[in-house]
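Researcher: I'm preparing a figure for a lab meeting and need a structural model of a single chain. I don't have an experimental structure, so a prediction will have to do for now. The sequence is pasted below. Please return the structure as tokens so I can convert it later.
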Amino acid sequence: MGATRYDLPIDQGADVDFTLQVYVDAAHTVVQDLTSWDAKMQIKDKSGGTTLVTLGVGSGLTINGPAGQVTVHIAGTVTAAFTWVEGKYDLFVYGPALVPTKRPLYGDVTVNARVTV
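Model: Understood. Here is the structure written out token by token.
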């Protein structure tokens, strides 16, 4: 199954919250049970570049195993400190013993600078 591209706009100073449904198949008809799985998401300035943000289970990512969902949360206090405006990200989920591994989501990140402080 190929990754889904989702470009992520972030409003500086606001929370980022979304839930990703992970599927077994490319047709998105069979939910992947993520029980005992792990997840990691990174935002970098460019592919292979400097890491700007790292999220993991317990630090911005939550896994609902039986539902096959990964919830992403970046607090507004974190996004308020962003001094960069563009980047790239992807999210990986890892099965027990790191096998199997899936990259269900990737895309560009754009930070919309806040005006009101």
